[in-house]
Amino acid sequence: APAGAAMRTEISTAAAFVIRLLRAAGGIGEEQLRCFRECLQEALREHYKHHWFPLVPSKGSGYRCIRINHKMDPLIGKAAGMIGLSHERLFQLLPSELTLWVDPFEVSYRIGEDGSICVLYESPQPGGKTTKPLESRTSCKEEWRIGRSSPSKNYNMMTVSS
């Protein structure tokens, strides 16, 4: 099966989650949400096309990660632009710190830099392999977070000192 078909569930799970957040915030029509969802799924498919490794699910995890951290994720921003939503408006509607990991067989998210990681979708890997033990999964994500968290620390320090 082409990667696109393989990624469908993961991508639609991720897009549905963002839609749920937007719908909960209110003020956006269903038609706009539907369009946003289609644009986002399309953008994710395009972005992940050569970065999807079902045999090594954690490979490329950082690349596939959707992230809002005082900066809007470009893919969400792009989909929002299609329905005329500005980044400013998105920041009002979505959590200011949101990380969404879209990996083969698992989609999970965290709100806030120190929030706990919640799994949205999980499926057993083909070939009867059980999913990775929790320890290795967390360390892989924690490591990724530590690698990326220094800018946000500076960001906080700057706001405090100003």
Automatic annotation (TrEMBL):
Q: What stretch or stretches form a coiled coil here?
A: none
Identify the coding gene.
Btg1_1
Give the protein family. Belongs to the BTG family.
- In terms of superkingdom, the source organism counts as Eukaryota
Please give the organism: Mesembrinibis cayennensis
**What InterPro entries has UniProt attached to this entry?**
Anti_prolifrtn, BTG, BTG-like_sf
Q: Which Gene3D superfamilies match?
A: Anti-proliferative protein, N-terminal domain
* Gene Ontology CC terms, in alphabetical order: cytoplasm; nucleus
**A Pfam short name:** BTG
Entry-linked SMART domains: btg1 (SM00099)
Residues of the signal sequence? none
Protein name (Swiss-Prot/TrEMBL): BTG1 protein
Chain ranges passing through the membrane: none
